[in-house]
Amino acid sequence: MGKFDFGWASLLLVILVWSVNVVSEGVIKVNSKFAGLERNLRALKAHDEMRHLHILAGIDLPIGGTGRPNSVGLYFAEIGIGTPPNNYFVQVDTGSDIMWVNCIACQRCPKRGYRNIELTLYNPRDSLTGKLVVCGQSFCKDFYKRSGLGCSGNSSCMYDQAYGDGSSTRGYFVEDVVQYNKVSGDLQTKSGNGSVIFGCGYSQSADLISSDEAFDGILGFGKSNSSILSQLASSGKVKKMFAHCLDGVNGGGIFAIGNVVQPKVNMTPLVPNKYAHIPKRL
């Protein structure tokens, strides 16, 4: 996770706020976890620094916090997964790659999480489009090749990810349809979807299972082929770029995926071939 391994795309940082017009291929509305809360700024900064300690390369564009320059925090989004879709609250993280959600086999996952939101355990059998990913598939071969781990045949494609703050997630990869909004005009969106491979986590630890900190999972926006952005781009759904527009006062904002067009933005080129983290051995 956090393996920045291509250099031809650019990361768009939208520095304006809600008055701008943004044209893109997909939009995810995000909320600030700490919006309106009086939290110790050192604690927030320490939290994010520890979370990214093992997954950051030399380049990172953190999106956490309230948007104020002296504060750091977390943003989360609500996405739909499956057919028919269920809604999941996931942390948005530009410093990691894979997307994962708590799975039905999880024994310690809380029923409710941050601000008492109801959490949902994903069950691939409940979805008409859900299916397991096996070691012989190209996604798993690429994932294990980069990690240095072994996987073969028709065995389930497993993952085991540890974060710098001491939390971790373990599970297996599945493939299912993810729902998102597509921009159809100025201030107008319509539903869109794409088939994505993501983690089905059955064992989480630390803050990932804490009742007052937990979400349904993490949505990684890193640059490796395993990220949701890379997968949607490879299937022709979007272009391999994203932008964000965050409300620094009240929290929240949007993530725009794909072809983002706006005359007043700052372009930040991404540094190619930077690796910082190897998933631990299973």
TrEMBL record:
Signal peptide residues on this chain, from the entry's feature table: 1-19
Pfam families: TAXi_N
InterPro entries according to UniProt: Aspartic_peptidase_A1, PEPTIDASE_A1, Peptidase_aspartic_dom_sf, TAXi_N
Keyword entries, A-Z: Signal
Claim: Signal is one of the keywords in the record: yes
Top-level taxon in the UniProt lineage: Eukaryota
GO molecular function, one term: aspartic-type endopeptidase activity
Domain called Peptidase A1: residue spans: 75-282
Keyword Signal: yes
A Gene Ontology biological process term: proteolysis
PANTHER family recorded: ASPARTIC PROTEINASE-LIKE PROTEIN 2 (PTHR13683:SF887), ASPARTYL PROTEASES (PTHR13683)
Family, similarity comment: Belongs to the peptidase A1 family.
Record protein name field: Aspartic proteinase nepenthesin-1
